[in-house]
Structure formats: C-alpha cells, structure tokens
Amino acid sequence: MYDVIKHYPRPSMELLERYEAVTESASLNEALPNRDGALYSKIKPVWHGARVLGSALTVQCGAGDNLMLHRALELIQPGDVLVVSCGLYDEAGAMMGGIMSQYVQGRKGCRGLVIDGACRDIQAMEQAKFPAFARNTSMKSVSKMLPGRINHPIVVGNVCVKPGDIVFGDADGVVVVPLELAEETLEKALAREKKEDELLASYLAGEQTIWEAYNFGEPYSRLGLSEEP
Does the pLDDT value for residue 171 go beyond 90? Predict the structure, then answer.
C-alpha cells in the first residue's frame, strides 16, 4: 500500500452544507451509536470563537517533524480539514504556523486544522479566521527528516479518524463522525437539537422542570437518600 493515498471516499459538499445546521459538537457526539466521536478534551480551539467543519485529510507525522504535513498541504481539496497525529511529546515544537495556514486557506480551500500536537502564530491564525484546534501551542521549530503517511486511518485524541470522515469543532472541542454514519448521525443530531429547543421553551414557560422532563426522581429514589422536609 502506498504511504501517500490521494483517492478515497469523501463527503459531498452538499452533505457538508447540511451539517452547517448543527449548532453544537455535543449534539453530533450524542447522536453517534456509542457516543465515541469526541476527541479528548486537551484538543481545544487555539483562538476564541473558532469553529471548523469539513472532510478529514489525515496526516501521520514523526514526532517533532512536519515534512509529511508540508506534503499534505499540496494535496488539499476545498472542504478539507487537516487532521494530524504527531506523537505525544508536548515540547516537540509547532507543526504548523501562520504562513502555512493562510496558504492552505487562501490557495487550497482548507477549512482548518485539528492536531494532536502544537501549532504557533496564533494571532495570525485568528486574524485570518483560520480555525485551528490543538493540544498545545509552541514557538519552537521542527525538523523535516522523518517519514510518515497521508490519508491512512490515524488515532487523534484517542479517536480513530479515517480520511473522508466529517470533522466538527467548536468551543467544546472536536467530534469526528465516520463517513459511513454521516447521514443518520446528522438526522439524529438535528432531531435532538429540535427537541432540546422545545424542552427549553417548556421549562422557561413553567410547564415542567428539567427534573420532571427526564424523570430523574426514579434513579434518585433508588439511592435511598434522605431529605430535610
């Protein structure tokens, strides 16, 4: 098998546009069969208000080396999100910075970056409105010597990500939806958000409480707790 794969199943732009209707990343994770699409919580937006939605272009880099990431920049198609695994050494250095991000955004139509590692030039990314989600930031440089792979399944934030999977990130973190589950997950997420909107309206109108709506009294009573009258 090739180290660098260029052809793989991708979501349509129409499907990505329909995903824009989702309000929160949590809605997608709750809609997945095992609620297992959320990357671990250390991967956060590097600037306030960042939101990303697109198709995963996966990159496996060596620790502290971004040669394969530079190669991936040339393979990006409009709608892609770079999803990068590069080892878990926090001080390895920044894998991507301001010039790289503005290049792929302006010339390639890249929608953002999700990296289990560091990036830098955060102010430049924010000014360009380039969504970046990372485990940490660093001003240190990296090498360009090590091999890696592009568009193979990788593990990022304890989640397996395949090329073409749908990536959605906001203030709460990042969730990955397998492409084969994309349609049903979207439908469930939108239905969940609609129901939550209706429930909130009923709470605020005094029609019911959260306690009543979810019947929390049942598990509470099983605990045998005592309450002051």
Answer: yes
